[in-house]
Amino acid sequence: MAAMAHVASFLLLWSLLVCIAAEPLRLSVSISRTESGEIKVSEVPNGGEDHACASGVYQREYTNLGWNFLQITTGASCPDPDQAYAAGFVEGALTWEMTWDHWQNTKDALSASDELPAFLAANDKYVSGEIAAEHLNSSEAFWWQVSLVLEQLKGLAAGYNSYASTSKKLTLDDFLRMNSDGDFYDLIPALKLKKKDSVGGHLARKFGALRQTVERTLGINTGRTEPNVNFDDEDLTLRGQQKCSALVKVMPDFSEIFVAQAAFSGLEELLRIYKLYDFAFHTTAKSADVIPGRRSAFSSYPAHVISGDDFYLISSGIVAVETTIGTFNDDLYRNGITPEGSVFEWLRNMVANRLATSAEQWTSIFSQHNSGTYNNQWLIVDFNLFEPGEPLKDGTLYVLEQYPGYIAAYDATEELRTANYFASYNTPHNKTAYELAGYPAMVTKFGDFYTVENSPRAHLFAREHVKVTDIDSFKHTVRYNDFKNDPLGRCANCTPPYNGEFGISSRGDLNVANGSYPFKAVSHRDHASLDAKVTSGALFKSFSSIVVAGPTCDQQPPFDWSTSDFNYLPHQGHVTEYAFPWVKVDWEGLRGATLTINSTACSAY
């Protein structure tokens, strides 16, 4: 009855939506610069998009679909820095209201360390110095792209502030923090640890010579010492946050490849925008070559020029997804994170997306200037190499795992070819990375939850992937969580004896508040899947994806702020209940997204 009621109410809602959906907001701007460097922004009238440095279309469907949709296109006739600034300005202007709400909901977490300002200032000095130096070298692609991302961020802040009221103004630093929120998952505990060491009057024991490594084979000897895992840290098991599930699935006859990612995070982050950037940037300051990753479609958040989940479709033929991996070895934080010599993960991510033409090259570019922050396992799929019905070519799937001072990147195509799937669930697969991060000690203390082979999600993916026959069954797989009834949802040391974290899509919010749990990562907490996104070889040909917003409600009740005991959390601008349908997203010209309901809400509940 519950399922029928949700379907009926949804169909009624959608019939009304067709009539009352708000008209898209549109804005085009041109840029001019004075001799002193002052930037002047001028609005371009409708119909003059061909003369604009950037144009945007913003479709406000959040209350109906759980997403807003944003398309930004830049004009090739404008210099790259003007394109970047204009792109940011248009986005900031169009999305300013949702940006303010998102800032109100997340700002406390972005200011959780007194040591952050000094670190950010030192890192900004280093990055700015490298950009200035490389302006003398017009062939340097990496730093040119970093400069354009930062120029876009400046435009974003300016566009926002041009529309926001005086009481709602935000600084460029505020926008930097919002885009760096993933990096803060590792940076904040690292800074707290260093402060504790300093106050305690002792030096962190040396971990040996951490070195910047890109590893192409498993089992390389790093000369490491025993990892230093501090079990007295009550928040230890929250490092990495168990953020996200991802799956690459190839059919046994190689007829199709499916790629999915479900983002996990705090429920206060449920304001979502699905974006398309079409930027006519050049590879370097003086190159005539346009970047290979000119177009990118990705799930995102207000004020973010990145995905953050992460889930990207890139016009170079690459699909990139990731899940966060935990850093439990304190010595990695002590010795591997410094403001000098490093570029935050979110910046390196965008540079790799724009410059790479293959999965292998993506990992090589991303590995430069490792910050050791927002440590993830990346799955990079190269659809250029995929031919339906033909065995997978080497290089189709690359996996990269990052830690402070260490990066492992390797061709995982053979594993995909043999097993027909590769799943990512917040645990490094590379043996060296796994040991370096302190996972064996976590297994000894907390059990199989931290293993590669025997964690709940490892078993769930191994069982569920074989049920995938098409895109609909694939969607069901990535949203799966039947923890109260599934034997793999059982938790021997939990009361009640099952756990909402033991699903492919998390529902930690459904663990009972007065329950008993062996460690924080599996407790009743502000943690759930925020969405799911899928694509395939067939969908990628038209740069399409199918997306759904909100915590999984296939086998569980929809998340509802009015009934949740987490309703004390800031959730300005949110809807009350998250029972949204899957939506197919296509992009056509400058008209914004074409949205097609793909399946009804909460299909199995």
Automatic annotation (TrEMBL):
<keyword id="KW-0378">Hydrolase</keyword>
<dbReference type="Pfam" id="PF04916">
    <property type="entry name" value="Phospholip_B"/>
</dbReference>
<comment type="function">
    <text>Putative phospholipase.</text>
</comment>
<dbReference type="InterPro" id="IPR007000">
    <property type="entry name" value="PLipase_B-like"/>
</dbReference>
<dbReference type="GO" id="GO:0009395">
    <property type="term" value="P:phospholipid catabolic process"/>
</dbReference>
<keyword id="KW-0442">Lipid degradation</keyword>
<keyword id="KW-0732">Signal</keyword>
<comment type="similarity">
    <text>Belongs to the phospholipase B-like family.</text>
</comment>
<keyword id="KW-0443">Lipid metabolism</keyword>
<keyword id="KW-0325">Glycoprotein</keyword>
<dbReference type="GO" id="GO:0005576">
    <property type="term" value="C:extracellular region"/>
</dbReference>
<protein>
    <recommendedName>
        <fullName>Phospholipase B-like</fullName>
        <ecNumber>3.1.1.-</ecNumber>
    </recommendedName>
</protein>
<dbReference type="GO" id="GO:0004620">
    <property type="term" value="F:phospholipase activity"/>
</dbReference>
<feature type="signal peptide">
    <location>
        <begin position="1"/>
        <end position="22"/>
    </location>
</feature>
